Amino acid sequence: MSGNGGSVTNADKRPNELLGSWFVRSGWSKGELARQVNRRARQLGANHISTDTSRVRRWLDGENPREPIPRILSELFSERFGCVVSIEDLGLRAARQSPSASGVDLPWTAPQTVALLSEFSRSDLMLARRGFLGTSLALSAGPSLIEPMQRWLVPSPTSPLPPEPDPLLDSRRPGRLSKPELDLLESTTRMFRQWDAQCGGGLRRKAVVGQLHEVTDLLQEPQPEATTRKLFKVAAELAELAGWMSYDVGLQPTAQKYFVLALHAAKEAGDKPLGSYILSSMSRQMIHLGRPDDALELIHLAQYGSRDCASPRTQSMLYAMEARAYANMGQPGKTKRAVRMAEDTFAEADEWDEPDPDWIRFFSEAELYGENSHSFRDLAYVAGRSPAYASLAEPLMRKAVEKFADDGEHQRSYALNLIGMATVHLLQREPEQSTVYASQAMDIAKKVRSERVNTRIRKTVDTAVRDYGDLTAVADLIDQLSVELPETAEAV
C-alpha cells in the first residue's frame, strides 16, 4: 500500500484467476474478446469504448474495468456458456446501483408501479439520447427472481386504485380521457406490435418506450376507475413489448426490468391472462439464458394464475413454453406430454366464445408448430445431438416454415424457423440442406432488425464450419454471411 492511505499500485495487483478461468474455457483469444466487447458496446450506444488486446491483458492481470465493461463481459460469457455468469463470478466489481435500477423485488402497489415505470422509461430514453443505455442493470435469476414474481397472485392489502375524482374539484384539470382517446392508445399499441413482428425489435424500440412514458403521465392524473384500469392494461402491454424488443436486440437486463414492471401493471389492471403472457416472455428469456429451471417455475406460475380465465390459445402457448423448459432440462417424457397438451388445447381455440386479445393473436398454427419443433430440437441438443429427436422436430419445423412463408407478416418468426430447419439438418448430418435454409434465413435477416436472429445465424454457421468446414456449400455460406450480415451495431 502507498503511504497516503490506500491506493493500489500495479505491484499490488494480483491476476484475476476467476476471469482467467472463464476466458480460457471460452476458447476466445484476447483479440476476439476485445472485438466482442467493442461490438456489444456499440450495440448499447457506448461508442466511447475502444478495447484492445493490451486492455484485455490488464483485466486478466487484475485491473477492474469501469462500467459498462463488467456488464458486457457478464453478458458475453453468459451467452457463451448458456448460463448466467455474474460480474462476481468473473472476479469483477459492479458499479453501485440505485434502488430503482437494481433488483426485481419491487412494491406491488399502484403508485410505486407508476413511479417506477415513469422513472425507468424516462431513464431509458435519456440515456439512449446520450448514446449510453442502462448497462448498470443486473440480471436476476433463481429465488431472487422467482420469489418476488410469486407475489403476482397475492391480493393487494388495500385498494390498488386511486379514489374516484370529484367532478366539481377536478372540472378545471385535464386528464379525463375520452373513449376515442383510449381506443387510439390501444390501436397504437397494436401497431407497434405489428411493426415488431415484421421488422424486429431494433426499429421502433425507443418509440414504444416513449409511448409507455406518456401513458405513465396519464396514470398520474385523476381518472375514473375504469379508465385507470385500462391505462394500466395499456402500460402493461407497452412495457412487455419494450421488454420483448430489448430482449430481441440483446439488452437482457433492460428486458427483464420491463417484464417485471409490466407484470406489476397487469396486476393493477386486474388482467391475469395478460400477466400470464408476460410471465411466458420472462420464461423465454430464462431459456435463452440457460436457466430452464427458472423458466419452468415462471410458466407454472403463469398457468396457475390464469387457469380459470385464459383462452385456449393462451393456454396452448403456455403449454408450448412448458415443453421448451422441459426439453432444455433434458426430460423427454414431460416434453412430449406438454407438446401434446399444447396441440390439444390449441384445437379448442376456434370454439372459444370470446375474441382473443391482440397480444396472443401472434400464436398461430405456425407458431405452435415452430415452438413444438424447437422443443424437440432443444431436446436433441441436450441428449448429445440426437438424430432421433431431430427427426421428431423436422416435420413440425417444415410445417412452420411453410406457413410463415405464406403469412408474409411475421418475418422474424419466419427467419427463426428457417434457422431452426438449418440446425435440424445439421443434427441429422445433412449439411448441404442446412446451408440452403441458413442462406434463406440471411435473406430475411437483412430486412429484420433483430440481434437475436443475427446471433442465431452466426452460431449456426459456426457449427457448420466446425463440423463441415471443408464443404464448398459451407464456404459459400461464410462468404454470404460476411457480405449480408456484417457485424455492425444494431439500432436500439
Please give the number of β-strands: 0
The rough form would be described as globular
Beta-strand percent range = under 5%
Q: Report the total helices.
A: 20
Uncertain runs: 1-11, 96-102, 129-135, 158-165, 167-173, 488-492
Question: Helices and strands, in N-to-C order?
Answer: HHHHHHHHHHHHHHHHHHHH
Helix content: 55-70%
Mean pLDDT: 86
Largest sheet features: none
Q: Radius of gyration from the CA trace?
A: 23 Å
Would you kindly provide a written description of the structure presented here, covering whatever features stand out?
By secondary structure, the chain is mainly alpha-helical. Among the domains are: 10-90; 98-154 and 176-270, no CATH class; 402-492. It contains 20 helices and no strands. Mean pLDDT is 86; it is low at 1-11, 96-102, 129-135, 158-165, 167-173 and 488-492.
Give a topology summary.
Elements: H1 17-26, H2 30-44, H3 53-60, H4 69-81, H5 110-129, H6 143-150, H7 179-199, H8 205-219, H9 225-248, H10 252-269, H11 272-288, H12 292-305, H13 312-328, H14 332-346, H15 365-382, H16 387-407, H17 411-427, H18 431-445, H19 451-468, H20 472-484
Helix pairs in contact: 2-3, 2-4, 5-8, 5-10, 6-12, 7-9, 8-9, 9-10, 9-11, 10-11, 11-12, 11-13, 12-13, 13-14, 13-15, 14-15, 15-16, 15-17, 16-17, 17-18, 17-19, 18-19, 18-20, 19-20
